[in-house]
């Protein structure tokens, strides 16, 4: 049954709210060990418990590749369907299919990104707090951390969209981040705005923030993908036309 007019608009809005909430809840559920440690860390930080906060950091570093990365890849599998126009696929089925198929790549990629984040964060902390003469290096490390964070969005998008080796996906995710700075800025700014709203209203993290950020990140990635694909097609067509002209000139000779 299809509604029209105002009723149709309300129905579609309700449908999208349900999709976003369902996928976000699945994401939170599957990454719940990491989320639990994150909440504990925020609590101990408020009480200035340094040792406990450090323990939570290590716990999150261990749990992120095992839970957060596979759950996020599954979430990107869901939003990929939406961005590409397939809104009829079941959220539950699509999520867990993506979770199962991409778990190994997400785990390996999660280990890679987590190790880099830990190393860069430690370096940044040391340069900014203990080596005051070298704080410029700390600023550089902060920039690299931001670039790495944004490349992670491309990593999840590629895991959901391509069939490549994990090494190729990580390499291409970083390269795409570097060669498309405007898309990087757009993704970073849009995600920051959504997360800021979530900080103001924490309950939104449970129902919407993750799925909205994932949708926006894949939307940007897919726009880049289509543009690059179009450029490649034009280059291929140009090469074919050039080859055809050269063949004709060769025949005339």
TrEMBL record:
InterPro entries: DUF624
Residues of the signal peptide: none
Keyword Kinase: no
Recorded coiled-coil stretches: none
Keywords from the named record: Membrane, Transmembrane, Transmembrane helix
Record field: transmembrane: 21-44, 56-79, 106-124, 136-160, 181-199, 205-226
UniProt name for this protein: DUF624 domain-containing protein
Natural source organism: Paenibacillus ottowii
